[in-house]
Specification:
48% strand; elongated; six-stranded mixed sheet; Elongation Factor Tu (Ef-tu), domain 3; SH3 type barrels; 13 strands; mainly beta; six-stranded antiparallel barrel; 9% helix
Length: 175
């Protein structure tokens, strides 16, 4: 077990449950591809408040709409079961370089979202991939807005000021 600060780590998925009897994990990945896991080399499993367990990535492969992840030292269903629900994190410095107009999800989550008119829309609470583009879930007082992450809609992302400005296409928002 490692006691570490989470500032240098980024959440890239979570364990759903074991798969089979040999310690394989069914996971949901927040990363764009399985290469994120392979390039990181090892992952940190967050099982408690500040409890992190580092494991080397042995393999990862797609399986239906999820991934199957094999980690070193996990050889039984009981060991894998103990990780049910665990967050999967990697070191930020293990992530691939990105282009100027690309952002990691962790940079976007929590941004205040405004319309180009200056009207406050809400906070970016969740992001999910759809195949062609990501969709941002913006929440304000219990109401959710689904915003496509496309250049025609997202006008500006200002990470230092923690804000995003959008220009919704006709019919996107029911304000």
């Amino acid at each position: 077990m490692i006691k570490a600060g989470l500032r240098d780590l980024i959440l890239i998925g979570h364990v759903i449950r074991p798969h089979g009897l040999t310690g394989l994990l069914r996971i949901v990945s927040y990363a764009q591809s399985k290469e994120t896991f392979l390039e990181a080399g090892s992952v940190f499993l967050k099982t408690g408040q500040d409890e992190l367990h580092e494991r080397k990535v042995v393999s990862i492969r797609p399986h239906r709409s999820i991934f199957l992840l094999k980690l070193s030292g996990l050889n039984s269903i009981d060991q894998a079961e103990a990780l049910r629900g665990a967050g999967i994190l990697v070191r930020k410095d293990s992530l691939a370089e990105k282009d100027e107009d690309e952002f990691f999800w962790y940079e976007l989550l929590g941004l205040d979202v405004y319309l180009e008119t200056g009207q406050y829309l809400g906070i970016l609470k969740e992001i999910f991939p759809t195949g062609s583009n990501d969709v941002y879930v913006v929440e304000n007082q219990g109401k959710e807005f689904l915003i496509p992450a496309i250049h025609q809609v997202v006008e500006e992302i200002d990470i230092p000021r923690k804000r995003m400005i959008i220009s919704p296409v006709k019919g996107l928002l029911d304000l």
